[in-house]
Amino acid sequence: MEAGGATPASQPEHDPVAPADVPVPVPAPAPDTRAKASPQPDPVQPATAPPAGSKDASTVKPTPQDLRAAVPEIDPETATLAAAAVEAAKACEAELTSRGVRFTVGESVSEGRCGVLRPITVETLSSGVTVGSKTQILCQTALALDHWVTEAVIPAAREGFNGAGVKTVDVGSSYVCRARSSETKISEHARGSALDIGDFTLSDGHRVSVQFQAEGSPEQAFQRRVRDAACGPFKTVLGPGTDSDHTTHLHLDMAARRNGATYCK
Questions:
Q1: Strand blocks (E) in the chain
Q2: Whole-number Å distance between alpha carbons of 166 and 163
Q3: How would you write the pLDDT of the chain (265 residues) with one tens digit per residue?
Q4: How far apart (Å, rounded) are the C-alpha atoms in residues 143 and 240?
Q5: pTM flag (> 0.90)
Q6: What is the secondary structure of 233-265 as a DSSP string?
Q7: Measuring CA to CA, which residue among 258, 259, 264 is closest to residue 234?
């Protein structure tokens, strides 16, 4: 019997026999009182293959609120590494002092996945160059900035602009709790490892932007020289021509890579 069919009503135990010429009445089917099965919904797509048009969690860019809400797991190994990082930071600060960098050390910042250990606010570099806008960066980032300006930016300005010195390096941003501009990974800015450089002010008042300049101009030669020289002190160098996110500034950071490799594009 097929599923869903009716079961005939049972006959009385001694049902009288009907005459041959009289049709035996057929009992009406008993009403089917079982609940009708609802139509089955379309199969749910597995988590590894989200429906078309939807976004998998791994492809959704986290907001600053998401990053701040994340609670990092602290175990004995992590605590040991943190203690070592504090000692390394203090050693770096001593080196900045010995070089003649003027700076202050702030309270460590901790915002979920974001944060900066003993953030450095640089006032002037060892060369006397002022850092425009307040910075919140790791000491190693500040040290790389001092090396780069002293060893590359100042000589490039003198040679390219009739002996002019460098008065100010404009820092557009340093610590910001956010993901990368076009990715889901956390930004190096969220670790205090990155700086965005907008332009340079020379001692004669001339402002040199990092944006593209006329072909063959002193500004273009200066740009190329300082950008190339940044690759080494910094581990990442991005800027105009890299992508649409870096058309107005140089992004410099200290991202750790295997064997100290750099990414300069």
A1: 102-105, 109-111, 114-116, 120-124, 130-132, 166-173, 194-202, 207-209, 236-238, 250-253, 263-264
A2: 10
A3: 444 444 444 443 333 333 434 344 444 444 444 444 444 434 333 333 344 444 555 578 889 888 888 877 888 998 999 999 999 999 999 999 999 999 999 999 999 999 999 999 999 999 999 999 899 999 999 999 999 999 999 999 999 999 999 999 999 899 999 998 766 789 999 999 999 999 999 999 999 999 988 999 999 999 999 999 999 999 999 999 999 889 999 999 999 999 889 999 9
A4: 24
A5: no
A6: TBSEEE-TTT-GGGSSSEEEE----GGG--EE-
A7: 264
Two structure tokens written together for 181: 């501009």
Q: Which two tokens stand for residue 182?
A: 């076009």
Q: Quick one: DSSP state of residue 34? A: S
Contact 167, 201 (CB under 8 A): yes
The tokens 């590359």 sit on which residue? 152
